[in-house]
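Section 5: illustrative case.
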């Protein structure tokens, strides 16, 4: 059986990218396998781990739950798009300064989730950070330092 491919055009990290994809291709596989943006991780096959989180039109989504064709015409930001002009994003600085990672597998998804959280709530309490990061599973259980990293970023972003 042959599958008809569809052309999609997305703005990814500010750059327009066009490709022919199968209608069933997930956004996470489009990012990783078609565009080579392997910073977005796949940690489960049950939509639970959050390692695949990216921003779709500025909102955090698990990219394993979105088809590439659904993102056609939209804007995606991945972890590769956080740093600007060689300057780390405050959330990246936070993870660096507060040792917010161990093996690093959950880190891209945790950072993208945190960016979304801080967009909605620039001054979160520890409790609110924990709630906001509920969808991110860290197998190294480094949650304490992830909370500290997000707090650090929140302070930096509020100036
Ligand atoms: S890979 Fe998407 S939630 Fe786990
Ligand atoms: S740092 Fe290892 S899974 Fe989170």
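Designed sequence:
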């Amino acid at each position: 059986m042959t599958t008809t491919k569809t052309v999609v055009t997305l703005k990814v990290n500010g750059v327009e990218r066009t490709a022919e994809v199968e209608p069933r291709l997930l956004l996470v596989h489009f990012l990783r396998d078609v565009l080579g943006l392997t910073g977005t991780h796949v940690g489960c096959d049950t939509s639970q781990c959050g390692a695949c989180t990216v921003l779709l039109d500025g909102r955090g989504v698990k990219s394993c739950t979105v088809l590439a064709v659904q993102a056609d015409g939209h804007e995606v930001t991945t972890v590769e798009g956080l740093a600007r002009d060689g300057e780390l994003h405050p959330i990246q600085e936070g993870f660096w300064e507060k040792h917010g990672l161990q093996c690093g597998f959950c880190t891209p998804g945790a950072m993208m989730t945190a960016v979304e959280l801080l967009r909605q709530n620039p001054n979160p309490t520890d409790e609110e950070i924990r709630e906001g990061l509920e969808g991110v599973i860290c197998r190294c259980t480094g949650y304490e330092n992830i909370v500290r990293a997000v707090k650090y970023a929140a302070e930096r972003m509020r100036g």
